[in-house]
Structures are given as structure tokens and as C-alpha cells.
Specification:
Elements (H helix, E strand, L loop, with lengths): L1 H46 L9 H40 L5 E5 L2 E4 L4 E7 L5 E7 L5 E6 L6 E7 L12 E11 L2 E3 L1 E15 L2 E6 L2 E5 L3 E4 L1
Antiparallel strand pairs: 1-9, 1-12, 2-7, 3-6, 3-9, 4-5, 4-7, 7-8, 9-10, 10-11
Helix pairs in contact: 1-2
Length: 226
């Protein structure tokens, strides 16, 4: 099932790349047609000019310079668009390789399945104390997990699915918070939720991922691939 999803996304990226090349060729052709029409108009204007008041050479030079500038801008825009389309296609191909892998994205949910739940958090500085608190859907505290000192960066944690009394709790969706401190002073921590990448989609907003029960997650939200 995973391979089928990967093949489908790879094919989509390939078609997108082909479309990007076709679009670039069409835009280049349009720029050439515009230049050709301008030159025909200029020649016609020169043929029908007043012999007693001919067009000034400076005017001709100025018009040619303007044409060159406009043509150059058109070509630059077409090149940039083709580059953007190519980058999007490459993102799709790279993202397809993430299918079946676990990732950490910004969020505070934790899914308990088969007696295990996973999560993470990110710290801007080292701390000498970090504690994860897990809550049920009603907002009641289920379990606190002391992790001790943690370095700056991303830290991962695991939950054995038991409450503070050591009793196993029902599987499902829970939330968590992180309390971190250094020398008694609170330190901000960004909560990161864990999920498995199940699909990759290329849409108007760019490449997005299906992660666990979440859909439409942009690549920018992925903090770590596990």
C-alpha cells in the first residue's frame, strides 16, 4: 500500500515537471511573437513616415531598447516560473520518500495506541528540569513524566500508556504540555506531536503531507524526521 502511494506521487511529480517545461516553451514562444509584432509595426511606421519629418534615430534606438527590456523581463519571468515549478516537483519527489516514516510537527496532541504514545518538544536553550504532563479529553491530568535536564534543541519522550497510579488507560487521543526551567526560571518549550507520514499531496499551497489523523500539513511544519 505504501509503495503504491509513493508511485502515484512520483508520477504526479513527473507530470508536473513535464507541464512546467511545456509552460516554459509556451511563454518563450509568446515573447518571440511579441517581438516579431513590434518589429513589423516599427518597419511599417518607418515606411510610412513623413519624408519631410523623418523619425529621429534616437527615437528608433529608444524604442528598440524598450523592446529589449520588455523581452528580457518576459524571459526572466518565464525562467523564474519554470524554476519554481521544478522546485515544487523536486519537493514532491523528496516528500514521497518520507512515506512510512515518523515525524515530529508542531502540535500538542499525542495518540496512545497499543499501550504507547510518543511526542517531543523543542528548547531554545538548555534546561536543568523538564516535565511532560499528559491530559485526557476532559482536561484531567493523567500522567506526569519527569525528564530531568535537557540540552537545547529537539527532545523526544515516550509514554507507556499508564496513569500516575500505574494503571493502563484507554487508547485514543490525549494532549500534553511541557514545563521546563533553568535555575528556577521558566523556559519556553515548543510542543511537537508525533505521527506517521501516510501520503503526499501537491496542491495550490505546495506540497502537503498526511500525518496520522492530520491532513494538509505543509513541509515547513515538519521539525524532525525519525
Amino acid at each position: 500500500m505504501v509503495n503504491a502511494t509513493q508511485d502515484a506521487n512520483s508520477a504526479a511529480a513527473l507530470f508536473a515537471s513535464l507541464n512546467a517545461n511545456a509552460g516554459f516553451a509556451a511563454k518563450t514562444s509568446t515573447a518571440a511573437e511579441t517581438q516579431d509584432r513590434f518589429l513589423k509595426l516599427l518597419v511599417t511606421q518607418m515606411k510610412n513616415q513623413d519624408p519631410l519629418n523623418p523619425m529621429d534615430n534616437a527615437q528608433v534606438t529608444s524604442q528598440m531598447a524598450q523592446l529589449s527590456t520588455v523581452t528580457g523581463i518576459d524571459k526572466l519571468n518565464a525562467t523564474l516560473q519554470a524554476l519554481s515549478d521544478s522546485m515544487t516537483s523536486n519537493q514532491s519527489l523528496q516528500a514521497a520518500s518520507m512515506i512510512g516514516h515518523g515525524v515530529l510537527v508542531d502540535g500538542k496532541d499525542v495518540d496512545l495506541s497499543d499501550g504507547a504514545g510518543y511526542g517531543g518538544f523543542e528548547l531554545a536553550q538548555p534546561v536543568d528540569r523538564a516535565r511532560v504532563s499528559v491530559y485526557d479529553k476532559a482536561g484531567a491530568l493523567v500522567r506526569s513524566i519527569d525528564l530531568g535536564a535537557q540540552p537545547a534543541g529537539i527532545a523526544k519522550w515516550a509514554w507507556d500508556g499508564k496513569d500516575s497510579a500505574g494503571n493502563a488507560v484507554a487508547g485514543g487521543s490525549y494532549t500534553f504540555t511541557v514545563d521546563a526551567a533553568q535555575n528556577g526560571k521558566s523556559v519556553a518549550a515548543t510542543t511537537l506531536q508525533f505521527g506517521m507520514v501516510s501520503s503526499v499531496t501537491q496542491g495550490r499551497q505546495g506540497v502537503t503531507l498526511g500525518i496520522g489523523n492530520l491532513d494538509g500539513i505543509p513541509l515547513s511544519r515538519v521539525r524532525q524526521i525519525l
